Amino acid sequence: MSQPSRYPSPSRSAAQIPVVVLAGFLGSGKTTLLNHLLHRSGGSRIGAIVNDFGAVEIDAMAVAGALGDSTVSLGNGCLCCAVDASELDVYLDRLTSPAAGIDVVVIEASGLAEPQELVRMVLASENSRVVYGGLVEVVDAAEFGDTRARHPEIDRHLALADLVVVNKTDRAADGEKVLELVRSLVDGAAVVPASYGRVDPEFLFDCRPSEERVGQLSFDDVHVPDADDAHDHHAGHLHAGYDSLSFVSDVPLDPRRLMRFLDSRPDGLYRIKGYVGFGPHDPRNRYAVHAVGRFLRFYPEPWPDGEPRLTQLVLIGSGIDAGALGKELEACKQDAPHADEHGMWGVLRYVRDPEGHDPEGHDPEDPDPTGSDPTD
After folding, report:
1. 7 DSSP assignment
2. Order of strands across the sheet that contains 285-292
3. Whole-angstrom Cα distance, residue 362 to residue 349?
4. Measured between alpha carbons, how far is 199 from 211 in angstroms, rounded to an integer?
5. Fewer CB atoms inside 10 Å of the end CB: C or N, the chain?
6. At how many degrees (to 10) do helices 153-160 and 175-185 cross?
7. CA dihedral 354, 356, 359, 365 (to 10 degrees)
8. Which helix (H) or strand (E) holds 346?
9. Per-residue b/e over 265-302, b at no fewer than 16 CB within 10 Å?
């Protein structure tokens, strides 16, 4: 199984900082997963907003519970009940300020929170540096049957997710049966099995090499891996739950064909990232693309001087047919000398306007907060 290529990630100004909502019922393993991400950040700097609404930049902290005096608390209760979008923006402003150097923000919700409301709050953010990074639902495989019987709303939560981590599969009597059941409940989301919350961080955010960090220690720099960490790292277990595809083209893509591809992307294709060139449709700009689940956004930016004009994409998913997807992307190529004057309309619907408003189809009040195609 291939690993994601180290193509350049969209620039900070273009792609903004993803905000990932981490949800799941009590005891499913959300904090364990967050702690795992801190251990395996790959040099990336993680900011976290945790259960009792404490916001703090996390770098060299081992666990969310060890934040001490630097935690800001608004008291007990779920995030979706304790604050509104403007209050959340106060903490997002702090974590996404350029001085903080944060690469990704993770909101760990209370086990009783309504994930749909948290997603709405992120999408309603007036912070131009914020971009929705997806809803990750954590499921306890060993307790899923009983939990679902007591709390049937979990089915609705799973239907909203962009990624579902079926945790504790090693403790479940029939982990495969639980995986099949969860896949039947999701709406095209990627479903990844895990033990002890160990999922590859590349599924959630771009990991940048620690050597890019200058003059400051990351958690990776000071953490001494234990035997289990080392075994997982060398055995590649963290990558067992997903596949990836790297696509490069020096021929421009046709915007209409690409939008048809994006509109019909298959179940389990969780992330698409990289740059697209549309040739004569916009000769001055390349388009950074950010897709997570059904959410999609483009960011036009000038082509860098002196660099080849390439389309460079990485697709990451669970159970995807990388070969078939590669052929579909190949079919999007078009080396036409002239542009269709209406060809870019589909793309431009997913470009944030200069005033910072969401593109059409990403209204925070829409019943589908994940930003599905407005033409569906």
Report:
1. P
2. 243-249, 311-317, 269-277, 285-292, 295-302
3. 10
4. 23
5. C
6. 70
7. -150
8. helix 345-348
9. beebbbbbbbbbbbbebbeebbbbbbbbbbbbbbbbbe
- The radius of gyration of the chain's CA atoms, rounded to the nearest angstrom, is 20
Q: How many CB atoms lie within 10 A of CB 203?
A: 23
pLDDT tens, residue order, the chain (376 aa) = 334 433 444 444 445 889 999 988 878 888 888 888 877 777 788 888 875 444 544 332 333 343 333 233 333 344 444 455 567 788 888 888 888 788 888 888 777 678 888 888 888 888 888 999 999 999 999 989 888 988 888 999 999 999 999 999 888 888 899 999 999 999 889 999 998 889 888 888 877 654 443 333 333 333 334 444 444 443 333 444 578 889 999 999 999 999 999 999 988 898 898 999 999 999 999 999 989 888 899 999 999 999 999 999 999 888 889 999 999 999 999 988 888 878 999 999 999 765 555 554 443 334 344 444 333 3
In this structure, is the dihedral angle defined by the CA atoms of residues 99, 101, 105 and 110, taken in order, positive or negative? negative
How many other β-carbons are positioned within 10 Å of the β-carbon of residue 171?
12
